[in-house]
Amino acid sequence: RGGAGGRPRTAKELAAMREAESRMAKALKDKLNARKEELEAIKARSKRETAELRSLLISQRKQLEDAKMSEHDRAMKLKGALADAEHAFGSEMGTLVEHNARLLSQQNQMLRSIPESLRVNAAVLARAADIERVVRKEEEKKRREELRALRRSCDREIASETAKFNAFRAAKDEEVEGVIADATAFKKRTKKEITALSAELTAVFEYSAKMTTLVHDMLDGRHPVRQAASGLRAFTVPRSAAPRDPLSGHGDTSQLLGTLVAKHGRLGVHTTRARGVGAGGGDTSAGGGGTTG
Known about the structure:
Strands 1-2 form a two-stranded antiparallel sheet. By secondary structure, it is mostly helical. It has one domain (4-273). Helix content is 74%, strand content 2%. The protein has four helices and two strands.
């Protein structure tokens, strides 16, 4: 098609413009692919780390439940030992009373079987019975004191183990809360990062579409060509028709754009801009057909 003033473009000019369009399309395609790869990597990392955090939470909960069961079993064993001791004491006291009753019965039988003249004075027997009662009471008192001491010891041990378990549970609860807080912060940070990358990806896509439209407009002759004093020709493109470079103005604030710049050297933007459309909507000089960066 003809350029400004109806002058037909040469095959060389058309080939140069098509080559420029092809380079820009490839560069923008590389940008999009790089952004997609970065976004997929972030999603994969987020999924992996979320799974690790979930596994850690399950492990912490299992440890806490195991600790609860262990302390409960220990307390039940102590209570069982106390009940066994009480039962043994009751059995022993019953046996002792039974034995004393048997001795008294035997004594009475023996007294009835001996002649009256050989029987011991009733006062002596009463005194012996009193002594026996005192001995029995002392023995029972001793046994009860031992049982109370055993009960106090068991109570102290149960209280100590309960305090240890409560401290352990509080520490585990705090640890689990910390893990949950870290997981929540990571989720928010990853979501924010994905949102930012999606916005950048959209900006590059829109820039690619606008640049493609601009190149087609230039090929279709919608923008005039100006002849410079030096003999070079340049396209004159209005400011409104020149899309804003999404890489400009980001500096180090964009991780993905920083990676792209380091990898592709601004994807040839600096070299092509010197031959293309200026950001201010004016025209810049370039031999033959001009392009945009």
